[in-house]
Design goal:
The structure is a homodimer. The first copy, chain A, is α+β, with helices and mostly antiparallel strands. Chain A has helices spanning 3-9, 24-34, 54-61, 69-72, 91-103, 111-123, 126-150, 163-169, 202-205, and strands at 46-51, 75-82, 154-158, 176-185. In chain A, helix 1 packs across helix 7 (126-150).
Chain lengths: 210, 210
């Protein structure tokens, strides 16, 4: 599919065909495409809990306004944003620094400076921790929804769930914010696709205050 | 371009050709594609300040670690996330509710319920306000970077700037978080593209705690 077909064709769908599975290899291909998203200092503060088992999906659905798509979709993802991903000692942050050493982009003497910059940009306040993790995980989640569409699948991003209850149910550690759930599957062909919702125009998006 | 070419081809580039402009119509096409991003209740809490003028870009650059790409790129965007976009009275939220009335998705009696849900999901705490606005604006910004790539342009998302100083310089109201800057332009052809950075594998992304 062309990029334009994907971006204009993606729609949050409410009805998934429970009979049409999303094979693991296909889901992995989608996740790998999504992982190409950029992130500050390449920290990649995103993770996924992949739910396929019906009972697992029902455990989630009961904390997600009982939205039936959570269990009807063959796969529902709990998207996690690591609010502590910027911290020295985090294995992915350490890998980042090591890769920068390997490529010559940084030298060992810059290690403390690098930790300090990460902390000041991403860890200096609760607001910065949430902003850093949710923005970057937003890049990843958007890429994932588009990647799914490019392979003929549909998705539905959901905010309607009880974060604390989902955290408790799946024993998700406190360092993760849960920005959204995404159901992934094939559109149920006996349903009608709703038309695209309205969007802000370019003139409504572009602002200036000074 | 195919979607796969776009997602694997996008790279944060450091060198933009200052001689190759991004015409307004082309930028508008990119913004319109990006505006197809989903958002909670279609609230679309994103805005852009578009800087083209050299002096304007230098006003930004001085608060952005003096990164020369800010002024070398023909266009640099200040991306804004409205932390108050969920609030009753916000014109886009009101338009959303009106559109739902028009389509029959909601009835007038659900107005207070709708306001309440938006507040509880997106406005109940400082963390939720930041998460809501930055996640959705992350969807928009990711779509914008991919849309630019699909039309032959390159981008560079930046976190290295002083939020408060940029806010003051461009008189940006307090309800906006500034999640990132994005430079947009054509890659400077006498420079070398750096290879892709490492990415977490699918096995590193998929987690389970229970």
């Amino acid at each position: 599919m062309t990029f334009k077909d994907v971006i204009y064709g993606r729609r949050a769908v409410n009805f998934f065909d429970p009979e049409k599975d999303v094979p693991e290899l296909l889901l992995n291909e989608i996740i790998e495409m999504a992982s190409q998203a950029p992130s500050g200092f390449n920290i990649q503060p995103w993770s996924l809990i992949v739910l396929r088992d019906y009972d697992d999906k029902m455990r989630l659905q009961k904390h997600a306004w009982n939205q039936s798509k959570v269990s009807e979709a063959p796969v529902t993802l709990i998207v996690l944003a690591d609010t502590e991903g910027w911290r020295a000692g985090n294995p992915f942050l350490e890998k980042d620094f090591q890769e920068m050493l390997n490529s010559g982009a940084m030298v060992e003497e810059q290690r403390q400076w690098f930790y300090g910059v990460c902390e000041s940009l991403y860890g200096a306040s609760e607001a910065r921790k949430i902003a850093f993790s949710c923005k970057n995980t937003g890049f990843f989640a958007m890429s994932l929804m588009l990647a799914a569409k490019s392979l003929g699948l549909d998705t539905h991003p959901m905010d309607g769930f009880d974060i604390d209850a989902v955290r408790g149910e799946f024993k998700i550690p406190d360092n993760y914010w849960i920005p959204l759930l995404i159901s992934v599957g094939y559109f149920k062909s006996d349903q009608k696709r709703t038309p695209s919702k309205w969007r802000k125009t370019v003139d409504e998006i572009v602002v200036r205050f000074d």
